[in-house]
Design goal:
6 helices; 5 strands; single chain; alpha/beta
């Protein structure tokens, strides 16, 4: 597995050598990166579908969308809100499931998650009950 998403070098290495890649970014960023990977695969004669595509990100689930947003802002401190979506999925159970479905539609096959560090055990239970069981 190669982790990273540099479009000129890293994704080219993925196309040539990797069995899996781990990307970062919002749905839009992931779509763009996977498009670049697909082009690199074509240029080196590699089957794009032979590469497992994963994404690493923070997941924060709350019963209330505004509370989830506030929690995420507290965790991410000084990061501008528009950049938070590059590394985090957050909101209600439905919001998170929707974002995960969009990533799946974009081509992500596995999601590697980092859960809310302020309430790890509770976050794990919520993720297991509300996301894993429902998807």
């Amino acid at each position: 597995m190669v982790g990273g998403s540099g479009e000129r070098q890293t994704l080219k290495i993925v196309a040539k050598y990797a069995d899996a890649c781990n990307l970062f970014g919002s749905v839009e960023t992931v779509k763009r990166k996977l498009g670049v990977l697909k082009e690199h695969c074509k240029s080196v004669g590699r089957d794009y579908d032979s590469i497992l595509k994963t994404k690493l990100g923070v997941v924060l689930i709350d019963k209330d969308k505004e509370m989830a947003k506030k929690r995420m802002q507290q965790i991410s401190k000084d990061i501008p809100e528009e950049q938070i979506t590059e590394f985090a999925i957050y909101g209600t159970r439905e919001d998170v499931l929707g974002q995960i479905e969009l990533l799946e539609d974009a081509g992500i096959q596995y999601l590697i998650v980092d859960l809310d560090p302020t309430r790890e055990l509770e976050a794990l239970e919520i993720f297991a009950q509300d996301i894993i069981k429902k998807s």
